[in-house]
Design goal:
Rossmann fold, globular, eight-stranded mixed beta sheet, 8 strands, alpha/beta
């Protein structure tokens, strides 16, 4: 498959020169080409932020929504059409901050989507405030005395909640990032891939060199199915482990657990609707709403 099918050469890319999003975008394009996923079978869902602009620079189906709200849309899309490859792609502020509650419950529901998070430890779009993953002591124009809160640890949260797949990559290592993306995209279940990528404008601490010096790759002897050991690795802070950190035992996905799926993986919009049953349902709901409205009115009097 030609890599050019994912390119958008007709538009300007609104990222700073040297931004970590560039190698991330390149790695994702190459991963999709090697997986031979055609653009019409791919849905990219993002929220708001510099990271969330990534789908704009690819040829694919795209849903660009509200800040922190990519996961509910991605979950619904996968449930409606399980044949789609669905990727939720956004930044650490969008996914772990505004979307933190959705992140937690997506892990619990286990939809068959890949969650790619651009983690630059700062808010890039809104000019450099501390993000949920900013290190303690990190100074910004807002946090002038330095960040005092402990950073959010998405890998530890994923392991603690028994996420289906948890991994971390550093975009400065293009080949390793691409391979981890391929594993996340093809994994059955909710796959978390936390991607370290420098913000060259607003974060002069967590640079390419810093990530290089503060990360290491798990060796072949490491067993990602050992949850206790995975949690220990997730808590490491002096040097962050890279690679597949945890894989849970196989379990059903959100879309497989839906009642509408019990007769097979049919697209929801192709499921035959019984008009009489639908009418009765609408009547029941309308009656219930009217009854509750009367009860609230009487109570208010």
């Amino acid at each position: 498959m030609d890599k050019k099918i994912f390119d958008r050469e007709d538009i300007d890319i609104a990222w700073c020169p040297g931004c970590g999003n560039f190698p991330l975008l390149s790695a994702l394009k190459q991963a999709l080409v090697e997986l031979e996923i055609p653009p019409q079978q791919l849905l990219l869902v993002s929220g708001i932020g510099q990271a969330a602009k990534l789908p704009h620079y690819m040829r694919a189906n795209v849903f660009n929504g509200l800040h922190g709200r990519s996961l509910p849309v991605a979950t619904a899309a996968k449930a409606a059409n399980p044949s789609l490859t669905v990727i939720a792609d956004s930044g650490d502020g969008c996914m772990y901050g505004e979307g933190g509650n959705h992140f937690i419950h997506a892990i619990r529901r286990n939809p068959g989507i890949a969650c790619l998070v651009h983690n630059n430890m700062v808010y890039g779009l809104t000019k450099g405030q501390a993000s949920p993953t900013s290190s303690e002591g990190f100074r910004t124009p807002v946090q002038t005395a330095g960040v005092f809160a402990e950073p959010f640890n998405p890998v530890a949260v994923g392991v603690a909640l028994d996420a289906s797949f948890v991994a971390r990559a550093f975009v400065g290592d293009r080949e390793q990032t691409k391979e981890l993306m391929k594993q996340a995209i093809t994994h059955k279940g909710f796959a978390i891939l936390d991607l370290f990528q420098p913000c060259v404008t607003f974060n002069r601490v967590n640079t390419y060199q810093w990530f290089k010096e503060h990360t290491y790759y798990l060796d072949e002897s490491y067993d990602p199915t050992d949850r206790v050991e995975a949690f220990r690795k997730a808590l490491e802070q002096d040097k962050f482990p890279l690679g597949v950190i945890y894989k849970s035992p196989p379990k059903a996905t959100f879309e497989e657990n839906m009642a509408a799926r019990r007769e097979g993986p049919q697209k929801l919009y192709e499921v035959e609707v019984n008009p009489e049953r639908l009418r009765d349902l609408v009547i029941d709901i309308a009656g219930d709403v009217q009854r509750k409205g009367k009860e609230r009115y009487q109570w208010s009097r």
